[in-house]
């Protein structure tokens, strides 16, 4: 519970207060990132379902997207924009890391952020026009699997930035593989529940494959360009994996 609360505090804007804090908790709390993701997805699903009763699907989709962004403070969206600004051009590793630290947004970041938000809204609008349970399942799975993908990248790569100046310094240290195993266990439990409640196994398998492919692609990209992961790179991984899972849920199969 303590580690879950640390994860909730780190990934969301919810007013979680802890009387005591140990840096090691931040490293180990990543095991519960998928559980926090499922909570964020549940909030988005509730807004989507409620808004779809009153407004067109596109309006409901944008409201649901706004709810999840507000809940996380745009944490992962910020990482996506910074990553594409830093790695979109052919610059050195050192220059890329400097760009990531710059609070301003450039053309690559603006394009990536705008297009991914548009695609996420379009996918949610499609889900809003379908039976409600499918939309709920897609939001729960996309937010949970996407955060597991980020944990997988974190566990499989060293930190690629300047550890001394990292915003969350404990996460710049080695993350034990057991944390990824527990994160996958949370995802397996969620997928088992979704399967028991009627979501087609093939749909769930495609969702897992989509998240895994994004994680592998981001791992390769970050390793080649930076020699490891950064917080912004993990945010980009989450966003792209989320899109991959939503594409799997909306695909015509």
TrEMBL record:
Needed cofactors: Mg(2+)
Keyword Iron-sulfur carried by entry: no
Pathway participation: Cofactor biosynthesis; adenosylcobalamin biosynthesis; adenosylcobalamin from cob(II)yrinate a,c-diamide: step 7/7
Location(s) in or outside the cell: Cell membrane
Membrane topology: Multi-pass membrane protein
Keyword Transferase: yes
Catalytic activity annotation: alpha-ribazole 5'-phosphate + adenosylcob(III)inamide-GDP = adenosylcob(III)alamin 5'-phosphate + GMP + H(+); alpha-ribazole + adenosylcob(III)inamide-GDP = adenosylcob(III)alamin + GMP + H(+)
GO MF term set: adenosylcobinamide-GDP ribazoletransferase activity
Uppermost EC category: transferase
Primary localization: membrane
Transmembrane segments: 35-55, 105-125, 131-159, 171-194, 200-218
Enzyme Commission number: 2.7.8.26
Keywords per UniProt: Cell membrane, Cobalamin biosynthesis, Magnesium, Membrane, Transferase, Transmembrane, Transmembrane helix
InterPro entries: CobS
Pfam families named among the record's database cross-references: CobS (PF02654)
Record function comment: Joins adenosylcobinamide-GDP and alpha-ribazole to generate adenosylcobalamin (Ado-cobalamin). Also synthesizes adenosylcobalamin 5'-phosphate from adenosylcobinamide-GDP and alpha-ribazole 5'-phosphate.
Protein name, per record: Adenosylcobinamide-GDP ribazoletransferase
Organism: Pelomonas nitida
Gene of this entry: cobS
């Amino acid at each position: 519970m303590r580690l879950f609360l640390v994860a909730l505090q780190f990934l969301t804007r919810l007013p979680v207060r802890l009387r005591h804090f140990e840096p090691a908790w931040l490293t180990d709390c990543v095991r519960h990132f998928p559980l926090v993701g499922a909570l964020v997805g549940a909030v988005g699903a509730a807004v989507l379902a409620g808004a779809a009763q009153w407004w067109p699907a596109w309006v409901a989709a944008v409201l649901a997207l706004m709810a999840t962004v507000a809940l996380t403070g745009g944490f992962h969206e910020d990482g996506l924009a910074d990553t594409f600004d830093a790695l979109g051009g052919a610059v050195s590793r050192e220059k890329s890391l400097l760009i990531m630290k710059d609070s301003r947004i450039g053309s690559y970041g603006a394009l990536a952020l705008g297009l991914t938000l548009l695609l996420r809204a379009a996918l949610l609008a499609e889900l809003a026009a379908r039976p409600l349970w499918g939309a709920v399942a897609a939001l729960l799975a996309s937010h949970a699997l996407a955060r597991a993908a980020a944990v997988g990248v974190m566990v499989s790569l060293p930190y690629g930035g300047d550890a001394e100046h990292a915003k969350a310094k404990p996460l710049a240290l080695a993350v034990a593989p057991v944390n990824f195993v527990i994160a996958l266990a949370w995802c397996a439990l969620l997928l088992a529940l979704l399967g028991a409640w009627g979501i087609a196994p093939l749909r769930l398998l495609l969702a897992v494959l989509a998240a895994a492919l994004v994680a592998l692609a981001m791992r390769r990209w970050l390793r080649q360009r930076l020699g490891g992961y950064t917080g912004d790179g993990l945010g980009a991984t989450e966003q792209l994996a989320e899109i991959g899972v939503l594409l799997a849920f909306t695909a015509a199969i």
